[in-house]
Amino acid sequence: GAGPWTRAAPSVGRSASPVPTAGADRDELTEEREAMQELWGLYSEAVLPAEESSFFDHFKQKPITIQEFLAKPQVLLLGQYSTGKTSMIRWLTGTASVHFDVKPEPSTDKFMAVMHGRSERLILGNAATCLKQASYQGLSIFGSDFLQSFQALSMPADVLKDITLVDTPGVLPGKRHSIGRNYDFPAVCSWMAERADLVLLMFDAHKLDISDEFQKVMEVLRPHSDKVRCLLNKADQIGASNLVRVYGALLWNVGKVLRTPEVTKVFVSSFWDEEYRFKDHKKLFDQDKANVLEELRNLPRATLLRRTHTIVERMRRVRAHYCILTYLRSQLPWHLRAFGSEARVRHWFDCNLPRLFEEAQRLHKMSSGDMPDIVAFREKLSTLEGIQRLPAWDSEVVEEITRAIDDRVPGIINGAHGVSAGEMARPEGGSAAAKGRLGLLERLGFGNPGASRSAKRRRTEV
């Protein structure tokens, strides 16, 4: 089968999906890709030199490669064992590849990037990191042990022309997860999530308990919570009377770990092509399937704005980081700079760091939101080799980054992605994604929020 990606758009009550990207949209995507190349050129010209001189890769993040920045949108699937991650990829691609190992017990034991190719091919980890058309060169920092547990699968599925899907090993309960794993699983998930455009956090409606390791994985997702969507899978396998209770328990568990100010969006369905077992809420299941597919289909169209958000946020953090390090150097007593050992310099910085942070922020008028976490910064500073080689202040470095944020990035975006008031108007009735944001109780038929708001409006007018 071709998978849901290529079927006709759904009518109410049918399980179907969006149509593929049209020719006009392809032209727009080409224009946006050219804009992204300009953005990366701006990053490499204005920001990368500041990163290199201020040891930003040691303190925060490795440099962005052009392959990572220009990569197709990536969708990362995370979850405990047997939550249906691989089954969902099989459903989306419409293929039953021998490399999709689907069993009731834990089956997937490797990270697998599923990408488009003319024919089906399995590419092992070390070779996958060498592919110029892929964006996984940075995974080499996790060593050979991890690369033995990573592979890429190319196949000619329509959905993969627009996005790349990343399957992950299921998280096991207790100490079983550490057996045979010679790498830092949460750290790898953090690296993947940072580069993903969407993170699908999958849960089995039958088992919502969160294991210790899965909690660690969810905690590393906090900085990327805006990209996280929760999927309550296998929802047709439980009766209607239990569905609301399971949904509420999931919201509680996720909110407790992610600690986001807004409730994480949850889609409720069974993400495969099999018939529903309990069909009481078939309309809800079909609608949420369509909502997930709509989000996936819209990813390529929003790539430029998402990457712009990422690059501008990074520019602000690099600018703040550069200002802090240069200020630390300027305040270091001359006798320590000339004659002090690295140990004495580290000790002086450690004792004076809170004061220096405040002074640097005040001097350069930096926002608190751009400032690094002082605890993490102190830890990284204590392990920095060549601490006496901190960069000296150069106003042109900061001016170049500021010019990029204030003038050059907006110029690139306006040239490729102008926004008019008419395009921002919302169609009557709202989109499928907006309907997907309704609470589960309303979608199950308990109350009519639209009618309630209309009644309240009429009472106010009277």
Radius of gyration: 25 Å
> In what range is the share of β-strand residues?
5-15%
Oligomer: single chain
Uncertain residue ranges: 8-24, 421-437, 449-462
Structural class: alpha/beta
Helix content: 40-55%
Instruction: For the record, give the distance between the C-alpha atoms at the N and C termini, rounded to a whole number.
Output: 57 Å
The tally of strands reads: 8
The total count of helices amounts to: 18
Averaged pLDDT: 81
* SSE arrangement, N to C: HHHEHEEHHEEHEHEHEHHHHHHHHH
- Summarize the biggest pleated sheet: 8 strands, mixed
Note the overall shape.
globular
Strand order of the largest sheet: 3-4-2-5-1-6-7-8
Word description of this protein:
This protein is an alpha/beta fold and 462 residues long. It is built from 18 helices and 8 strands. The chain has helices at residues 23-53, 56-59, 66-69, 85-93, 125-128, 143-147, 185-195, 212-220, 240-258, 282-331, 334-339, 342-363, 374-382, 395-416, 421-424, 432-436, 440-443, 449-461; strands spanning 74-79, 111-116, 121-124, 150-155, 164-167, 198-204, 228-233, 266-268. It has an 8-stranded mixed β-sheet, with helices on both faces. Strand 6 (198-204), helix 8 (212-220) and strand 7 form a beta-alpha-beta unit. The model is unreliable at 8-24, 421-437 and 449-462 (pLDDT under 50).
